[in-house]
Amino acid sequence: MAQVNAYLVFNGDCEAAFLVYKSVFGGEFPYMGRFGDMPPAEGQPELPEEDKNRIMHVSLPIGNTILMGSDSNSQAGVVKMGENVSISINVDSREEADSIFKGLADVVKMPMTDTFWGAYFGMFVDKFGIHWMINFDEVKQ
């Protein structure tokens, strides 16, 4: 396994939170993307204007780990605090991603799929209520 990180989801204040985290921990954001930057998903309605400026993904390296986050949006619904933290695992192969997914997934939130950002990615909740994200970067960042 390449790396295990925390992933936080917010209800619109992800950018404000990560600016505070950056002021405390230092460093720079290697990436901060907004929902408005995403290509439209086939067969899905366009995001409302109020969602387009919300954070789709941000990362902040802290030591040997990366704190990651995003905002929810109107399509995903309001995130309940306490259920807004996931364990994010970056793996070394599709096979490893599929093995972990198959071994732990109880409630599938997003099946393993190829994404527009060049990763093989999926999300699920295990039988203990823990939220997980599995990511394999097809092209190393």
What does this structure look like?
The protein has helices spanning about 15-25, 50, 95-105, and strands at about 5-10, 30-35, 55-60, 65-70, 85-90, 105-115, 120-125, 130-135. The chain is α+β, with helices and mostly antiparallel strands and about 140 residues long. It has an 8-stranded mixed β-sheet with strand order 2-3-4-1-5-8-7-6, covered by helices on one side. The longest helix has 12 residues, at about 15-25.
Structural shape: globular
| Most strands sheet | 8 strands, mixed
Secondary structural class: alpha+beta
Strand order, biggest sheet? 2-3-4-1-5-8-7-6
Multimeric state of these chains?
Answer: single chain
N/C terminus separation: 16 Å
Radius of gyration, rounded?
15 Å
The H/E string reads: EHEHEEEHEEE
Strand content: 35-45%
The low-pLDDT segments are: none
Q: Count the beta strands.
A: 8
Provide mean pLDDT, rounded.
90
Question: Helical region count?
Answer: 3
Percent in helix: 10-25%
